[in-house]
Amino acid sequence: MTAGEKYVESLPRKRHFHDRNERRSYETARIVAARLIDDPRSLRQGLAYMRRHMEGDPHQADYLRLWQDVIRQDTKEIARLLLEDSPRGALLRDTRPVFHVLTDEERRTAHLAAAGAGDAGISSEGLRP
Q: Which parts of this chain are annotated as the region Disordered (predicted)?
């Protein structure tokens, strides 16, 4: 287990999700958060993504400002904020720049982690018929 994975495991884990997509997104964010800690250089990739895809787009302006504030912090703090079970944590996960491109194995791990939980923690209010 890497230092990043150990740190992510030490954080409080989100337990309730509206649907499987939210759970899969969260599991993906856990992998990305661990990689940010293990390789802080990946922040540069996120910055480049923000410059390429968010700057100059008026629809992305609020998210760009949010992430510009977040990205100035220590990688452990970024990981903690990204995985926080709060509206801000959810917004950060939904608007996350590409810091790390998941490998096939990492993507499979996120999918299995999301599927392995079954329906536990998924509230019916967020599910659509």
A: 1-22
